[in-house]
Amino acid sequence: MGIVVGYLATPEGRAALGAAIEEARQRDTRVVVVVSTRPDAPEEQRSALEAELDRVRAELATAGVDHEVRLLSGGDVADDLILTAEQVSAQLVVLGLRRRSPVGKLILGANAQRVLFDAPCPVLTVKPGPA
C-alpha cells in the first residue's frame, strides 16, 4: 500500500509532492515518487535530475515519510504511473495539473486523462498555489 505521485521539477510537481506527503501522513503510509524520463535524455539533463531527486528524497526524509523514488526511462508517463500504482497496491495517485485558460479547461492533458480513467485507485489532482 502507498501513495503514488507523479513528479516533475515544476511548480505542479512540487504541489503534487506536497499533497502526497500530507496524504501519507494522514494515512500513515509511504510515498512512491515516479519520475519518467526519456532514454535519450542528455547526460547533463540526467545529472540535473539526480540532483533534484536528492532534494526530493531529503524533503521526504525531513517530513518523516517512508518513501521510494522510482526513476523510469523509456516508458509512457501515464503507463508508468498506472503500473506503479498496480504494483504497490496504491491507495491513491497524486498528480499536479497546470493552470489553464477557460478554453483550456475543456481539454485535460492526455497523460492526466489516462491516469484519471485507468488508475486502479482514486486520483487526487492538485494545482500549485498562486505565483
From TrEMBL:
Protein name in the entry: Nucleotide-binding universal stress UspA family protein
Membership in a protein family: Belongs to the universal stress protein A family.
InterPro entries named in the record: Rossmann-like_a/b/a_fold (IPR014729), Universal_stress_UspA (IPR006015), UspA (IPR006016)
Record domain UspA: where: 3-127
Pfam families named among the record's database cross-references: Usp
Taxonomic source organism: Cellulomonas humilata
Domain of life according to the entry: Bacteria
SUPFAM superfamilies xref list: Adenine nucleotide alpha hydrolases-like
Coiled coil: none
